[in-house]
Write a structure and sequence with these properties.
Elements: E1 4-5, H1 12-17, E2 23-24, E3 33-38, H2 43-61, E4 66-72, H3 80-89, E5 91-92, E6 103-106, H4 122-135, E7 138-142, H5 144-154, E8 159-173, E9 186-196, H6 199-204, E10 208-213, E11 217-225, E12 228-233, H7 243-256, H8 273-286, H9 300-304, H10 312-344
Parallel strand pairs: 1-2, 3-4, 3-6, 4-5, 6-7, 7-12
Antiparallel strand pairs: 8-9, 8-10, 10-11, 11-12
Helix pairs in contact: 2-10
Length: 345
């Protein structure tokens, strides 16, 4: 079922992808699941993140009408083009105050400080967490937002990894939670992070771990916070097939420009043998001298056609379960309100 959006608030790339057929919200339309997408990604990834979540939600919605509104933290630094995009299609998170949504999805952004509480947007992000606890049925926190959420509500400090956890990793699903309904015992999801929150700290603070790996740690975990079930992902089920490749290319460029000290590790479990060979040869060339111009020879075209979204079915399954959870809670509230009115009469 196509996503529903407000008139004049449909991002250009999505409108072009849908050939102008995106559904518009109608006044008084109450039987929809209202979702606030709080997109805080850096400029280079913001529009791609929009499309990734739009496509995932639309595929997962099935028969559930889903109305999406876009928000972003006002305290994040932005370039002129993205600032214009935000002004046209987004609202500030300040405008969430006093509003209720059935669900919310909050993304992270690229951290600059070891302690997230020292980030300039910490106060604004904390206010969004407070709002979500009181004014949504369920809230999804993605990657850095998950780290910030557990730090804010439970004081759980993330710990640095020896190297970037980057690639597609396998996780065991357990716990019998309704969000795992229809999911296989082993799922694979993309990750791209330098830090993790330890399982023992999560369990001691009342979180239920839903997917975990002996080698890769915790992926998905949940906890009820006031009125809202908070669903945390350390990974990125929303990623498209090419996202990890583009991040790898970005990190190589940063190395060639001298912005990072080491050549980035290749994404785990992502490239096939031929792509791995091509990228190994490119690394040998790059090791002979740091020149950004070498990126012109990066074998992107050769590699792109070999990449598959091997995690899509699992991602769709989890988000379908999440939307069904949100819709069922909305229905329960509606029935309760009607019963209360009848009883009062």
């Amino acid at each position: 079922m196509p996503l529903i959006m407000d008139r004049d608030r449909i991002p250009t790339q999505w409108a072009e992808k849908k050939n102008g057929h995106a559904r518009l919200i109608e006044p008084g339309h109450m039987d929809v699941a209202k979702i606030a997408l709080v997109n805080n990604m850096p400029d280079a990834a913001l529009e791609d993140t929009e499309l990734q979540f739009f496509e995932l939600l639309e595929t997962a919605a099935r028969g559930i009408p889903v109305h999406v509104e876009l928000f972003s933290l006002p305290s994040l630094p932005r370039g002129d083009r993205i600032r214009e995009h935000l002004d046209k299609f987004y609202s500030s998170t300040d405008e969430l105050s006093g509003r209720e949504f059935d669900g919310a999805i909050i993304t992270g952004t690229e951290p600059k400080q070891p302690d997230l509480r020292n980030e300039p947007y910490w106060s604004a992000l904390s206010s969004v967490f407070d709002w979500a606890e009181r004014n949504t049925t369920s809230t999804v926190l993605s990657c850095l937002a998950a780290h910030a959420g557990v730090l804010y509500s439970d004081g759980i400090v993330r710990r640095p990894l020896g190297d970037k956890q980057f690639g597609v990793f396998g996780y065991r699903a357990s716990g019998g939670h309704e969000l795992l309904s229809g999911l296989g015992d082993l799922v694979r999801f993309p990750h791209s992070r330098w830090n993790e929150v330890p399982a023992e700290a999560l369990v001691s603070c009342g979180y239920q771990i839903l997917t975990e790996s002996t080698d890769a740690g915790v992926d998905m975990f949940v906890k009820q916070k006031r009125n809202s079930l908070f669903v945390h992902f350390q990974g990125h089920p929303e990623y498209g097939a090419l996202t990890l490749m583009r991040e790898y290319r970005r990190d190589i460029r940063r190395f060639l420009k001298g912005e990072r000290a080491t050549y980035p590790s290749m994404p785990h479990g992502y490239f096939n043998m031929e792509a791995t060979k091509q990228l190994g040869e490119f690394r040998e060339r790059a090791s002979r001298g740091l020149h950004e111009e070498l990126m012109q020879a990066f074998p992107e075209d050769l590699i792109s056609g070999t990449l598959e979204n091997s995690w899509q079915s699992s991602a769709v399954c989890i988000y379908q379960n999440w939307l069904q959870y949100v819709a069922s809670k909305k229905f329960d509230r509606s029935v309760f309100a009607q019963t209360a009115r009848v009883g009062h009469a």
